[in-house]
Amino acid sequence: MTVSDFADLGLAQSLARAVRELGYEEPTPVQAQAIPLLLNGSDLLATAQTGTGKTAGFGIPMLQRLSAAKAGKEPRGLVLAPTRELALQIVEELRSLARFTEIRIAAVYGGVGKGQQIRALRAGVDVLVATPGRLLDLMGEGHARLDRISALALDEADRLLDMGFIHDVRRIVNATPGSRQSMLFSATMPKAVMNLAGEMLRKPARVDVSPEEPTVANIRQQALRVAREAKQSTLTQMLREPSVSRAIVFTRTKHRANRVAKALDKSGIAAEAIHGNKTQNARQRALQGFKDNRIWVLVATDIAARGIDVDEVSHVVNFDVPNEVESYVHRIGRTARAGASGVAWSLVDPEEQRDMAAICRYVDRPIEEIDEDLNPVGTFTVGRPRDNRGGNGERRAQSENAKTGSANTGSANRSRRRKPRRRKTRATAPA
Ligand code: AMP
User: Is the pLDDT at 419 greater than 50, yes or no?
Assistant: First the structure.
């Protein structure tokens, strides 16, 4: 069953009210499909990315089923997430949804002291949101018990496995009762994820809201050939463009993220680096500064950026070209949220041509090549350096179009809640 109205989902009054007050007018495709299946008690295997409304997709039924059952001190719902940022985002969303219920929600994650987390667990928790390492620590020390878990959700399972958490995840899953309801959400479904799904899900229903196209339609994708040593000065120049209102710059390593952020800061561009070596507090401060517009450039590594969910990022810059096509798609998806348009720039040095070639083959439409003045000079073709010095009529016309039609990245439409992206959808009943 798929429903197009929250009122038809049979939600408890407290949840229906929270959904209304959050301003959610209708269920997103993943919610429309997943919520009825999960309320029915089915296990679920879902292909869905961040931005589709998946958190409420598993959160609403989990909260509803738990609020109907008797509470104790031990957690009854468990959500595993790969990063602290994602864990915090999930907690925020679940708390908003649960605010007219008695359900207690807490998060445990690494990078901060354990004291507060232990106190929260002692006080009693209904839904625990956790990163695997810290949860195992707390279990080992006797602070967290999972033998009352009746609902288990794995979020961004592909990333959990990419980050090497498979054994931790298995240990955690094995510590929960076999009678639990389980759900697994993943942006992609590689074999390792399918194997894990086979181990932990029982006759799962499937929901697939994978993007219809590999890249979001209203992102303008452009690439610039640049020597490795000229990347920093090129980036500084690019970010000074008036159309750049808020940008995320991606680097391959933490060290480079630090270096790039420092250099930007030195040239008067308010930037912060965000990556796994920073303390949780420093990362949260940086993110908050970005959300509040105190800093307008965030320099991030792929993993740190996984949980970043900020509206109105006008530009994404691939300071380093990612060597996985999926990372490219994920990175550029940080812009053009809330139905806005956005621009993705890639700085391609000669050694990155092969990775860029793979990206060009994968994305659904040609990536434009731009010159150092950011004017389009044609389609980016790997292995054929541009020869546009001086330009020609056609190229000038293109660049004029680019200017007049440039992405509307202003600060209009600053709504707090954005409409998740439209997806191609498919759902099948349990096997
Ligand atoms: P997620 O994919 O769970 O990260 O959700 C993306 C964003 O969509 C979050 O900021 C949610 O608050 C928001 N959201 C979730 N469900 C809805 C809905 N039905 N209508 C509008 N916004 C939603």
Answer: no
Average pLDDT of the residues of the chain = 84
Give 51 Cα–ligand 1 centroid separation in angstroms: 6
> How far is residue 200's CA from residue 203's CA, in Å, rounded to a whole number?
10
| Integer Cα distance of 90 and 105 in angstroms | 10
CATH tag for 213-428 (out of 2.60.40.10, 3.40.50.300, 3.40.50.1110, 3.40.190.10): 3.40.50.300
Among 418, 421, 422, 425, say which to mutate for ligand 1: greatest number of ligand atoms within 8 Å of CB: 418
Ligand 1 centroid – CA 23 distance (Å): 10
Name the pTM for this structure.
0.60
Nearest CA residue ID for atom 10, ligand 1: 417
Mean pLDDT, residues 70-84 taken together = 94
* Residue 383 φ/ψ region, left for φ over 0, alpha for ψ in the -120 to 50 degree band, beta for the rest: left
Residue type, 384: R
Distance 140 CA to ligand 1 centre (A): 35
With a 6 Å cutoff on the Cβ, whether 368 touches ligand 1 is no
Q: How is residue 69 written in tokens?
A: 């059952």
Is 6-210 assigned to CATH 3.40.50.2000? no
Contact 320, 346 (CB under 8 A): no
CATH 3.40.50.300 residue ranges for the chain: 6-210, 213-428
**Cβ(3) to ligand 1 under 6 A?**
no
